[in-house]
Amino acid sequence: MKYFKSYLLIIFLSPSFICFAQIDKRELMKTVEFLTSKELAGRLPGHAGYDKAANFISSELAKLNLKPGGGSKYFQKLKVEYAEILAPEHFSIIKNGKKTEYKLGPDYVYRGFTGSGKLTAPVAFCGYGLSQPELGYDDYEGIDVKSKIALVFKYNPKWNPDGKTFTKGNPREKAIVAAKHGAVGILFVSFPNDAEPQKPIGSVIHGEGEQMESFPEIHIELNLADELFEGSGKTLKQLQTYIDSTKTPSSLSLHHQVDLEVHTKYEKEKEVVNVIGIWEGGDPKLKDEYLILGAHLDHVGEQAGKIYFPGANDNASGSAALLEIARAFASQSERPKRSIVFAFFASEEQGWYGATHFANNLPFPKEKVKAMFNLDCVGFGDSIQVGGGKSAVTLWETAKRIDSENDRLMVPATWSGGGADAEPFYQKGIPTIYFVTTNSYKHLHMLSDKPETLNPKLFEAIARLAYKTAVFEASN
Question: Is the full-model pTM beyond 0.85?
């Protein structure tokens, strides 16, 4: 009850905080429109498009007179692996001497760390692309894939060998295994037996290991796989059913060829930046305590100058919300007691690299961080979800109470731990909550993740909830 009373005191005794809690969906959408524009080319860290996004955010933070939190121009530098997919490119299937060319985007998408290649080769289906004889399972046993292209399921099976666990299976590991068996490239395909099989998506999360610079890696649509299986007497659905029911490989050579070309500019290390700004608190003592608000600025880039992934929901929405919250704080003469850190992270799509780097290189003692809020995919969906509620109970209850007195859009479901960019902070013992929308991932990493798919009213509501929760935590 005492906690609730302190909340009421802030709300009623500090009306200035309430009046600037009016986040404007028009401003949110304006920022999203810019971040998803062709000029920014999908915001792949290391690409000029991401640099434009980072420069835009840093210039906006400078206008608000936020203190740089990462160094020069608000930038905290780090190095990540980088690959840029270049023209010319094509993908065709040759059946009975007839070549059918397919379209980049709807029919196939290159893996973010594909190698280069220009080749014509037959195809062999190799199940899940796993070769782990020590576990009693090997998709490559008994099949010759030398000078062929391996066709494999993108993900590992939803089962494991009896009493054991598959230890490998990310895209890079599957590609390395295929190459070791003599393959000259790899095609990934989604599970045909899923209720809603995944479409080819842009992705730069690849796994550890050496880059194979002359080994093409492509995610193809299921209908292309069906074309390749024609005349084999089998279907992809039948083979998935058999492998899953028997836990036994069922690899086979197919009768048709693939003709493809792709070029990649690869750099093992390339400098990228987080964008960090700090709104200093107004209390002489509590200003040395910090609330971190974070969102990843990056997405998965473009391919061969033909397509780019806008990333409106993922995560232009979170970045736009974070910028609007910074503007709201900066618009008021009365400052919160604690300092607010606004962190726009790089390379979340590769595996939280930007957030991890910031968590490991804070510009203040970790013990001074009171909480971390993550905003990721907050523009599309049905309602508001706040993750981390089972581990950061007080933070979650604050958000729930604020929502109950305002939009009433927050669902009770939550989880324990961080997740995505919140995870590195959670692992360091910092309380974290994660703002996201329910049913948020319909357009995840697809060309269709555009501004017009967003729900501006919900977008505004979740940004407002994150903002008001931050006001309370920074001022309590």
Answer: yes
The Cα 14–Cα 311 span in angstroms is 37
Residue 140 near residue 183, CB atoms below 8 Å? no
Rounded to whole angstroms, the Cα distance separating 434 from 469 reads: 12
Instruction: Report, as an integer, the average pLDDT of 436-453.
Output: 97
Determine the 3-state secondary structure of 296 from DSSP: strand
**315 cis-preceded (ω within 30 degrees of 0):** yes
pLDDT recorded at residue 21: 53
Rg of the chain taking only CA atoms, in angstroms: 24
Residues found in the chain: 476
Using DSSP's 3-state secondary structure scheme, residue 377 falls into coil
Cα(358)–Cα(360) distance, rounded to whole angstroms?
A: 5
User: Could you give the 3-state DSSP secondary structure of residue 149?
Assistant: strand
When pLDDT is averaged across residues 247-266 and rounded to a whole number, the result is 98
Map out the domains of the chain with their CATH numbers.
Answer: 2-80+267-475 (3.40.630.10), 83-265 (3.50.30.30)
User: How far is the C-alpha of 181 from the C-alpha of 313, rounded, in Å?
Assistant: 40
